[in-house]
Amino acid sequence: MKKWLSLLSVIVLGLILTACGTSESASGSKGKNDKIVIGYFPNINHVAGMVAEEKELYEQTLPDGTEVEYKYFPDGSAFMTAIETGEIQGGLVGPGPAMNHYMSGAEINIVAAGSTGGTVIMARDGSGIESPEQLQDSTFVSPRVGCTHDVQFEALMMREYDLKSDRLNGEMKHVTGKPATYSQLFASNRIDAAAVPEPWASKIEEEGHGKVLVEGDDVAFNDTLPAAVFVTSSELKENDPELVQNMVDAHKEATTFIQDNPEEAKEIAIKKIKDITEQELSASVIDSAWERIDFTYEVKLEDLEAFAAASFELEFLKEHPDLEGLVDTTFIEE
């Protein structure tokens, strides 16, 4: 009887150990990932995501058999929530949402950049506004309150022209809206000015509904701040650094492809933006937008810190920002 009980104990123990092993493998606790989801936005600053998808670059750098999916986001808040919940494993987002969520306690890391530039300050055609000094008492639009483009606009106005939004008891009225609708907002006289990310600035120019007030290096942080950054979770970075390296390698290859093959990259951008937004942009719009953007995966903490300090100065942040630990450049240095 004792022998039978002893044998039964061994069998039960073996089943328990087997079950534990199966559970660990399925949960990916050893860094095993059968599927990776990459996120990005359908705009020009995120062309690296489009090229990587079209050229299947993640499939080439990730372990054989890894399924790769893509998810497209309308704004940074939705993207960051997806990173924090594990819905996506990495991808491109604006630096503003990444920093804001990090300072709110999100365990995430910026491991590369995507591009710089691409923000244009524009005025409605027929508004009578010929220079930034004339924006007093105007209504301006940005994608979201405190987003990257909003901070760029308000920092420029406050520092260079002593103008403030109504949020700070200033003269300019602030509204929000999707950049793809700005041309219509100009055409209907609903706004006077806008902080516009490409390619929508070039689209407004082509349609004749607005004109450029400030562009290039004259826009706050346009020449230094990454307009898009590659983000992943700190947990994934710590538990599976090899996987994160695989993802960053694919992103770097996509960025290099854009630099070496701009015309083909433009064609990919036109196709992907149409697929995602159902809006087909002309080659001339893409050409114009391209001239205002620099595609790079290099990222520096000090550039992000300067931008975060401006966000605090503009009272988008309640506390002085501490970004120590946010940026990890080891993966782009490999």
TrEMBL record:
Name of the protein this chain belongs to: Sulfate ABC transporter substrate-binding protein
Pfam families: NMT1_2
Keywords: Cell inner membrane, Cell membrane, Membrane, Signal, Transport
Entry's localization field: Cell inner membrane; Periplasm
Record SUPFAM superfamilies: Periplasmic binding protein-like II
Family statement drawn from the similarity comment of this UniProt entry: Belongs to the bacterial solute-binding protein SsuA/TauA family.
PROSITE patterns, per the entry: PROKAR_LIPOPROTEIN
Keyword Transport in record: yes
InterPro entries to which the protein is assigned, alphabetical: ABC_SsuA_sub-bd, NrtA/CpmA_ABC-bd_dom
Signal peptide positions on this chain: 1-21
Organism: Thalassobacillus devorans
